[in-house]
Amino acid sequence: MLDSSLREQLVSVFGKLENPVELIIDNSTHDDHKDLLEMLNDVAETSANITVKESGNNSPVPSFYIAYQGKPTGISFKGIPGGHEFTSLILAILNTDGKGKLLDSLLVDRVRRLNKGITVQTFMSLTCENCPEVVQALNLITLAHGNMKHEVIDGGYVQDEVQKLGIQGVPSLAGNGKMFHSGRISVLDLIEKLEKTFGVDANASTEPSEPVNKNLGHFDVLVIGGGPAGASAAIYSVRKGLSTAMITEKIGGQVQETKGIENLIGVTYTEGPQLAAQLNQHVSSYPVRVLENRRVKSIKTEGKIKTIELESGEHLVADSIIVTTGAKWRELGVEGEKEYMGRGVAYCPHCDGPFYKGKKVAVIGGGNSGVEAAIDLAGIVREVVVIEYNNELKADRILVDKLKSLANVSVITGAKTEKVVGDGAKVHQLEYTDRTSNKLEKLDLDGVFVQIGLVPNSQFLKGTVELTKFGEIITDEKCRTNVKGIYAAGDVTTTPYKQIVIAMGEGAKAALAAFEDRMYDHA
Hints:
Elements: H1 4-13, E1 21-27, H2 33-44, E2 50-58, E3 63-68, E4 71-78, H3 86-96, H4 105-112, E5 118-124, H5 131-145, E6 148-154, H6 159-165, E7 172-175, E8 178-182, H7 187-198, E9 215-224, H8 228-239, E10 244-247, E11 260-261, E12 270-271, H9 272-284, E13 288-291, E14 296-302, E15 305-310, E16 315-323, E17 327-329, E18 345-346, H10 349-352, E19 360-364, H11 368-378, E20 383-387, H12 397-404, E21 409-412, E22 415-422, E23 427-434, E24 439-444, E25 447-450, E26 454-456, E27 486-488, H13 500-522
Parallel strand pairs: 1-2, 4-6, 5-6, 9-10, 9-16, 10-13, 16-27, 18-25, 19-20, 19-25, 20-21
Antiparallel strand pairs: 1-3, 3-4, 5-7, 7-8, 11-12, 14-15, 15-16, 17-26, 22-23, 23-24
Helix pairs in contact: 3-5, 8-9, 8-13, 11-12
């Protein structure tokens, strides 16, 4: 099942293993059981420290769990973790032995305070590009906790469970028989959601597992944000000889959520996760202090020195700050949207489109993202209706022409979305106002995909720098804000045209401006 090139890569990767890891497979009469067994045996052949054993248990679907030094880790898979999830399996094996990228001690301490005996189910699809990030994060949390279970489930094998939980999107997380989250989620937000869903042990020790120095030091430049603008700013800063740190929830930022990228000059085609990995690799090749899974709580300016406090309780000092926190998908903000998220309301057509095969859906938004989503969905669903607030679509002409050539797509312009309507389990209708007649219309459908633009991630800067009414940071031609020593670049700013290539250029410009201003100050 594994080709020779992949086998060679795994031999190299698993060369780091020091202790025995066991893949314990259940007995099953399912037709795919033999394929799972073949895959696991192929993986095991690449390392003397990996073995495949039979559990003695019976399962209606192909399934296995991971054990370490003879003890279950809490991580199990229902289905065959191929496609995008193959990486999740490889990383789980490495993480089990303490290898690879692990949670830092501050996050580990939070995880260990969660109540014991938790079981979390992640329903995923092998074609979902967002699922591996969530699966891998929960695997790390499970290993750090030491007394919880994480079941990674390919929804295609357990349709009864999927229907019972009302799942219409992936990744979806369930616990105690209820779905408690659907869609992408950062590690920080995931831990917070687990705390709210399962509770925290009041008797758990609050003493840190290892000494933590919460003073992270003094840097010439601090970059807040790890997307294209942030990576560019950090690289340009450190190349100028400035001590540089980067605070980010995750390297890549919103790029991680982008499917195909065909307009990054010099790169004919790439995809978001691949570009994010390349940004990480490039930043890592320089002496940049990268602090992931962190959020800024506040910034205090005292003369030329800025003190940055993080939500983790850590703090650091910087002479200059470059804010590159980007933006997130804008929500409709209408009744029913949050209630039916993952049960008829979705934001990722690539991940959730297959759940609506043969059904009727609406795409809210007539810009490039909305029209691209409608084009993609048209090849999967029975019918697509594009809903646009303005009187005409805003997407590029080439995309609009492609959309109009599709027989199963219709467009409604001049429409204000009012309400998502469901029966308690799933969506069945969308209400909108015709802005010409002012009449309330009702559209029967099975799902709603929201694609209405972006909201700047600038909440932590309110009262610190000048923002527009939309939350964008106001900058001049050299990326300066109204506060000396604080710069901003990319989608979080007033710079027009939110594009990857522009964000990279603005990040470089901000770094050069910060260096230039520093030279004048020190002259």
